[in-house]
Amino acid sequence: MSPAVSRAKTPPRPASSDLVILSALPPSPPLSPKPSASRTVLRVLHHLRQLERGVIERRDYTFHLSQQELADLHRRIEAIPRLQQYWTYKLRYDYDAGVLTLRMPDAIHEIFIKRVETALQVSLLATAARLEASGTTEAAAELRRVFLSGNTTLNLQGVESSSQDSDNTPVIIRRSPDASFCHTSSGTNAPPLVVEVSYSQQKEALGYLADSYIVDSRHAIRCVLGFDLGYGRKKEQGREASVSVWRAGVDGEGVGICRADVEGEVFRGDRNGVDGVLELTVADFLPSTLAAEFSDAVLKEPITIPFAHLAAFLTEAEATKAVPPAPAPSAAPTRFRKRKRTPSEELSDTREESFARAEDDALAMRQKEDPEWIERERGLERKISKRRSGRIISADDATSGGAETAIPKRRSSRVHARKDREAG
User: Where is the composition biased (Basic and acidic residues) (predicted)?
Assistant: First the structure.
């Protein structure tokens, strides 16, 4: 018997480029599809675009959103720089108990609140100068550290109104006051004093807002100044304007509440001023921890605005809005052209809904089994295009040499075909 012949192992031939051989390891799973937005979120996005472009009327709009939908709305707004800038710096909104309210003040509202802000700042600095002249330099220095933070959005951890306890489960509450006065030691999320101007809501809405500001902030907000300009009512009733002041208080059981010290006091009748003075105090502008360091006499120092000034601010705002636009000069162009918007800015509500439906259909399809992939105990196999091989090559076949035996056959057939053509 002939001795055993040792056979040298020949290196495997390179795989043909016409064949796709998969690795023995399964491929990485596909990326998770991006979840589609709810119909309500899409409506809010479309509404925000319309408001930002000035297409629809500037008034209050209300949407019912869950906290998850609100978070999704924020993510989608952040993806659109122009809309994010409008949401952050122009729009005022409140979110409470699953209700999102978009508030769009008009020119009367804006002009009036700016004049009130200026008057409060002037009176605040005058009080600080008066305290410094009397020798109370520390209180004067703290008053000068009070600054106007505008309509910065506040994130409050509120409590449910169904119970009187203060240890209820916190809920997300976001509010954008018309104006707020902060102190450098407390930051902008807990201003001691906020200002709200109602130009279309009922008086009860202002009281509800004040209660939410003071109670939901756990008395971090000490005072709420509210103005009711009387708009949205019948003309024959007269457009009276009133002011209210709410402060943090404690009831007989030691529970923190919101107390109305001044409620609906008229500062202007039917376009006529009323005698009186809006009086705030130093304690209204300082955080509670800082106010505890000063005497009652210092904390009760008045910061005032006469009612006649408030009436003049409102009359001036009304007159400014009523001024018609100036006529164009004779040399002005007669034809105009606006810059064309990008496709992303022209997305309409109907297209958004159609895209949402398409996303839902795509998600449903991805959740089904992909016909190009077969899952078996030995691994994953991929079907090769019929144009290339017309057969299935698995990872096991690739490693056992099945693919290598198929390669010379295909090459041999090509060689014979070429020789036949040359001979012919």
Answer: 342-360, 366-383
